[in-house]
């Protein structure tokens, strides 16, 4: 296809962008400047002040307005000839069904959560429209292209879910160091310095030993003139002393566990030391902001194992420093996320990545059945619907069948008596359902909106590890194919779409490709550096560069002017198609 017809194809293409946030604003600008004329945008959010630092289409005066609509208005001002259609809506709304998706040549995601990404992936598969998925990990951006039957789908690789711990374990019966760290960071720190309106599961009992009539939350409220050391002592005695005494009163809990020992500050440190803890001569607000509790106490080696007395002094001192630095403004403190990249990006702005072939056992793009280990005699249908069908499989309106018998249907538009019947089923254990689900049963779970159908084989199991398998159900059969290495994900904000190393290419005479994470080096000529699907993305910013958004036409591309990234030695660039 010559470059004129490619430009024509771009002009004719109808594209859908999902998300008009950080990535979406950039994307819309780039699409508009690249010559796309018919762009649709879905975003469910309104603009917030905190978006203004990076979502550059938005201004202060737009705060509170629909992102999709403002993005359209702003871009239309400098590109009035383009037709931009905004939808202030959730992409999961039923109006955005498979027929809606089929109208587009390509879908581009600029989302910030796994749930919506999975939903769009499924609709793209059902509608057979290419999906360009993008996201961030730390300071790096990633883009992958997913085309049904030619590349892996977004869900071929299981996405790492952030590790969580049951609240009761970390508050009452911690057994690992990590439990204590999560308790301190997510519960105690949040209670002391976080947003007061945010729910917090910190295990607090009524009564603090001084005034039991007061509500417990008062313990964490610092009096207007309360000196930090007094406040610190109150918190210390409450969480390490009083709460432990209360917990010990429940004998049942400690039958098979080591009993904890309550600690009160007065038993650990002499009164004089409590009052003269740390370097009080320095006013941290005006002086040394970097002063840490450790250096204030003259503890210089963090590798040393501190005594209980030293730890207690550190607690008091760190609390005092936090309080003084915060001053009178009680804005919530949160932990800052810092990403540490093992290998920098080799001075490359764009890093080409080969799309991967589909995972043959992916339940989303192949029909591979899954296996569920569950105690069929104690788990209810509700457990199955909430924990597996909605949470794990990401279905919104599931239909569950055993053989030809429908046992559950989700949705807002059900007849009252039908809904009541399903509600009755929800609280029944699996073996007590009208069509009993036992070991060996096969359930069919379908989401009509996503046009996704999965078969789940059931295996009865009695015992579960409470920590590793808190759902008391284990979904198996969704195996990861052999790959070089797993990617690094930061959870919700990343596409987590690049399972193996992004490959950076050096601009050396003998062009070399370094697989970033595995560090295996290969010659460019050996690895056949790019594929046509990547080109789609790579040439977007340049209208003269050639491409078509039609997957059919992609097959017929000529391959002479791709590979944007290298290119001191274009001759070295041999092309390889995905099989
Ligand atoms: N289900 C969904 N339907 C439509 N839009 C969605 C959906 N889920 C997320 N989005 C949109 O995706 C965009 C993601 O943008 P971004 O990652 O910059 O996050 P943000 O919410 O704008 O910023 P921040 O997270 O810093 O508040 C948001 O504008 C959000 O409204
Ligand atoms: Zn897949």
Automatic annotation (TrEMBL):
* Keyword entries, A-Z: ATP-binding, Ligase, Metal-binding, Nucleotide-binding, Ubl conjugation pathway, Zinc
Gene3D superfamilies recorded? NAD(P)-binding Rossmann-like Domain (3.40.50.720), Ubiquitin-activating enzyme E1, SCCH domain (1.10.10.2660), Ubiquitin-like 2 activating enzyme e1b. Chain: B, domain 3 (3.10.290.20)
Q: Where is the Ubiquitin/SUMO-activating enzyme ubiquitin-like domain?
A: 372-464
Where does the THIF-type NAD/FAD binding fold domain lie?
5-180
Q: Does the keyword Metal-binding apply?
A: yes
> Which GO molecular function entries does the Swiss-Prot or TrEMBL record give?
ATP binding; metal ion binding; SUMO activating enzyme activity
Q: Which residues bind ATP?
A: 19-24, 43, 51-54, 67, 112-117
Q: Which pathway is this protein assigned to?
A: Protein modification; protein sumoylation
Residue numbers annotated as active site: 168
Region annotated Disordered, chain positions:
539-579
Is Lyase among this UniProt entry's keywords? no
The entry's Zn(2+)-binding residues are 153, 156
User: Which family is this sequence assigned to?
Assistant: Belongs to the ubiquitin-activating E1 family.
The protein's name: SUMO-activating enzyme subunit
Please give the organism: Musa balbisiana (Banana)
